[in-house]
Specification:
It is a single chain. The protein is 44% helix and 13% strand. The two termini are 19 Å apart. Helix 6 crosses helix 7. It has 2 domains: 153 residues, Rossmann fold (3-Layer(aba) Sandwich); 66 residues, DNA polymerase, domain 1 (Orthogonal Bundle), CATH 1.10.150. The strands form 2 sheets. The chain has a 6-stranded parallel sheet with strand order 5-4-1-6-7-8, sandwiched between helices. The protein has a two-stranded antiparallel sheet with strand order 2-3. With 233 residues, it is α/β, with parallel strands linked by helices. The structure holds magnesium ion (MG). Magnesium ion binds next to loops.
Length: 233
């Protein structure tokens, strides 16, 4: 394998795909099943949080603690439910074409950095027809905070591509994506295809804020500018 000169770590929900609430529904179902009562998910802010963080928050709001033996059952029930709810998950407009283009570019090493637990990410990527795009990544099952997850994603990505010095950028859709990247010393391209508009993402410190990933040329330009190394298409 040729060593890539640019490493790109993509968030999934709101950035690469739209789950149409599949994760939320699956989480409610799993919580009810394992904890014996409905969780308080309705007004929880899902954006940019990991799955484990969401489950802990929902339990906390009810004054519950998730016992050690409940935790694997909860995650298993969640992934099982997700297989039923994720049917409508789709790649966001332009994203499949962009990712395939990037994947075929030997300059680029693609990875995922998502709050989804690994098995859940696999379900969503498969539903969106993108199972083969990200050969490596970090997941909500690797760390409950976005920073912890991203640190794992970065280490795995550098190791997988044997590219310790290649500039690395993250791509996400929430202020939490931006904050996690900055906490680890990376720049973040934010896309306004989730809950946040470009002005919000800029205010959150995004290093570039794009309306979507539909304009591949704009994405390549942002990567070139932020990495200080030209990425040609
Ligand atoms: Mg997201």
């Amino acid at each position: 394998m040729e060593r890539p000169t640019h490493l790109l770590i993509f968030d999934l929900d709101g950035t690469v795909l739209d789950g149409h609430g599949a994760g939320h529904q699956a989480m409610e179902r799993a919580f009810r099943q394992v904890m014996g009562q409905p969780g308080e998910f309705d007004h929880l802010d899902f954006a940019g949080r990991t799955d484990p963080a969401m489950l802990h928050l929902a339990a906390e709001r009810l004054g519950l603690t998730i016992a050690e033996d409940q935790w694997p059952r909860l995650l298993n029930a969640f992934v099982t439910a997700l297989r039923e709810t994720a049917g409508a998950t789709r790649a966001l407009p332009g994203v499949a074409a962009l990712l395939r283009h990037l994947a075929s570019n030997p300059q680029v090493g693609l990875a995922v950095g998502t709050g989804n637990v690994e098995a859940g990410a696999a379900v969503k990527l498969q539903a969106a027809g993108l199972s083969d795009v990200f050969p490596v990544g970090g997941y909500g099952s690797d760390g409950e905070s976005r920073e912890a997850m991203l640190a794992v994603a970065v280490a795995r990505t550098r190791n997988f591509y044997q590219a310790n010095d290649a500039p690395l950028l993250t791509v996400g859709d929430t202020p939490r994506d931006v904050a996690a990247a900055h906490a680890l010393g990376f720049r973040c391209i934010a896309v306004a295809t989730g809950r946040y508009g470009q002005p919000n993402l800029e205010a959150a410190g995004a290093d570039a804020a794009l309306p979507s990933l539909e304009d591949a040329a704009a994405f390549y330009r942002a990567v070139s500018r932020l990495s200080g190394r030209d990425l040609s298409d």
